[in-house]
Design goal:
With 81 residues, this protein is mainly alpha-helical. 84% of the residues lie in helices and 0% in strands.
Length: 81
């Protein structure tokens, strides 16, 4: 589930970037429908960037298995506090 979610977010991110680049460098700004989709894509890029970071941080912290706490405990036992 996690890998599929990351792939979907990346695909949506790339699709949004295509609209943004098309708006800036292409003729998307001349057509109202494409201009609106480009504005939505700009908002989606921000949301997807935040969602990706939140998801990956939760995944990283979840796989930590408390090793940071174990390391702290070892340091306290070794050097005292």
């Amino acid at each position: 589930m996690g890998l599929a979610f990351i792939i979907i977010i990346r695909i949506l991110f790339v699709a949004s970037m295509v609209f943004i680049i098309g708006y800036i460098f292409g003729g998307f700004s001349k057509k109202p429908a494409l201009a609106t989709m480009s504005k939505v894509a700009a908002i989606m890029v921000i949301v997807l960037f935040i969602a990706t970071n939140v998801f990956l941080m939760r995944f990283a912290f979840g796989r930590g298995n408390g090793c940071f706490r174990d390391h702290q405990q070892q340091q306290i036992e070794r050097y005292g506090r």
